[in-house]
Specification:
8 helices, globular, two-stranded antiparallel ribbon, binds zinc ion, Glucose Permease (Domain IIA)
């Protein structure tokens, strides 16, 4: 769906993001640190990739593929034994605590690749090259600022915990969750109008985690939608996500609100990476903006059938 207006919209989104990042200071109230996630045989995604890079950094020979299989399990057991932990092959809080390493500008190793992978999960779009340069420094500072942490530009244990544990899309009420992490985009991104029909385009970099807006059943979409995922919601509405770079759920499977669906990208008919979302009620498109804003604000989510069908496109 390429238009000049789309480019303008995405550009304005990027400007708004930069401004909001500049305004968000270290005075933001610090919430409780997110829990370290449990990873075990069968887990997939960027947290697995980061764990594999950290194991490599610790000297273990392991394939980095984001898939927690038998090879990763046995390497984790070896690592746990060597570090006085019970060797259960599951990465929980204690194992994470032994895996992460404090890093700062100038570092060049696999632990930096883990850091860059984790920052990309939160929407930063860094090259995963293992070299900590200015782009990695500003991403760390921005992430710390957005999460109310001390902005020292150093990846210490607390910053790691927020990066690895902060995978949940924090905004949400009832059986609904925000479709990307709340810290990824400013509120204004959820007010933007679509270029031709009721929908929304969110300007996010490739690799940003996409979450299920509500519980339901997964179906795959394609064509101009690229790698697309539809959720036939338990609320009776249909939610369509387009242009993903990868899908983490199988067609026909059930998902819960806030479950990871996949990672954003630029597949299908696009001029650049973004996440396209549609909400349909009885096959007709509704404007998703009020629903997303309620999720961002943590207020009551309007019923999909109450969403307007006009006023959100041009
Ligand atoms: Zn679109």
């Amino acid at each position: 769906m390429p238009t000049v207006l789309r480019r303008l919209t995405l550009w304005l989104g990027a400007v708004a993001l930069a401004v909001s990042t500049a305004l968000a200071g270290p005075t933001a109230a610090q919430a409780a640190a997110p829990a370290w996630p449990l990873l075990s045989n069968g887990s997939t995604g960027p947290n697995v990739t980061s764990a594999q890079y950290l194991l490599r950094h610790r000297g273990y020979s392991i394939t980095v593929d984001g898939q927690y299989g038998t090879g990763t399990t046995s390497t984790v057991k070896t690592f746990q034994s060597a570090n006085g932990l019970s060797a259960d092959g599951v990465i929980g809080a204690q194992t994470w605590g032994k895996l992460v390493v404090t890093l700062s500008a100038g570092a060049n190793n696999d632990a930096v690749r883990a850091l860059q992978t984790s920052l990309n999960k939160h929407g930063y779009g860094l090259a995963v090259d293992g070299a900590w340069g200015p782009a990695t420094t500003s991403a760390v500072q921005s992430f710390q600022s957005r999460n109310g942490l001390a902005v020292d530009g150093i990846a210490g244990p607390t910053t790691w915990q927020y990066l690895i544990g902060g995978s949940g899309s924090s905004g949400g009420t009832g059986n609904y969750r925000l479709i990307i992490g709340k810290s990824v985009l400013p509120r204004s991104a959820y007010t933007s109008r679509h270029h031709d029909y009721p929908a929304i385009d969110l300007p996010v970099v490739t690799g940003t985690t996409a979450y299920a807006i509500t519980s339901g059943t997964i179906g795959y979409a394609g064509g101009s939608c690229g790698l697309g995922i539809g959720i036939t919601g338990d609320d009776g509405a249909y939610y369509l996500y387009c242009h993903l770079s990868s899908r983490s759920v199988a067609s026909g499977s059930r998902v819960g609100a806030g479950q990871v669906l996949g990672y954003t990208g630029a597949t299908g008919n696009v001029t650049g990476p973004h996440l396209h979302l549609e909400v349909r009620v009885n096959g007709a498109n509704r404007c998703p903006q009020n629903m997303l804003l309620a999720l961002y604000d943590g207020t009551a989510v309007p019923a999909p059938s109450s969403l307007p069908a006009t006023g959100c496109f041009y």
